[in-house]
Design a protein that fits this description.
By secondary structure, the chain is mostly helical. The chain is built from five helices and no strands. The protein has one domain.
């Protein structure tokens, strides 16, 4: 498989992932926030739940939008790497920086998922079983962040070796 074909496949995968993120943020997130609100108010949240139930809805919805924006930033970096691969620039310093930025985006998104475990309690709502889903999302983001960071380190070594070889030729 040549570089152009690999790049095309990577870009197609990125576009599909981007569409998934956008659909999740635009369509599913409002339904998820509404369902979380109804579950939490049924479970008898504290005084905040009785006074302002829409607060949790908007906090949850904005949280999903922020995490979606971070994922789209990581995806944009991924797409730039994919384009550079198609231009036969797989081993370049820009790809190393992009992988480190992807790792940072995924790490920060994982931290936001951990924060999401505690926000309902701080607003006076019981967390319920959603904490497990949030924890799994955070762990997945941390694992992918570590993978991107490791690939960035590995690619950095490859770039350094390639630059040394170019200097000796």
């Amino acid at each position: 498989m040549n570089q152009k074909r690999i790049s095309t496949c990577l870009i197609a995968a990125g576009v599909i992932a981007g569409l998934g993120i956008l659909c999740w943020a635009a369509l599913y997130a409002p339904m998820m926030a509404q369902e979380a609100l109804s579950v939490l108010t049924r479970e008898g949240g504290g005084p905040t739940a009785a006074q302002r139930p829409e607060t949790l809805y908007w906090v949850g919805l904005c949280g999903v939008w922020v995490t979606s924006a971070i994922l789209l930033l990581a995806l944009a970096e991924y797409l730039m790497v994919s384009v550079r691969i198609g231009r036969d620039r797989s081993f370049c310093p820009e790809n190393v920086r992009s992988l480190f930025r992807i790792a940072l985006y995924l790490l920060s998104d994982g931290v936001l998922w951990l924060i999401a475990i505690f926000v309902p309690g701080l607003l006076g709502y019981p967390c319920g079983p959603a904490w497990l889903i949030f924890l799994l999302a955070a762990l997945a983001h941390f694992a992918l962040s570590l993978l991107a960071w490791s690939l960035g380190k590995l690619l950095g070594k490859a770039v350094s070796i390639q630059q040394e070889n170019e200097l000796t030729v």
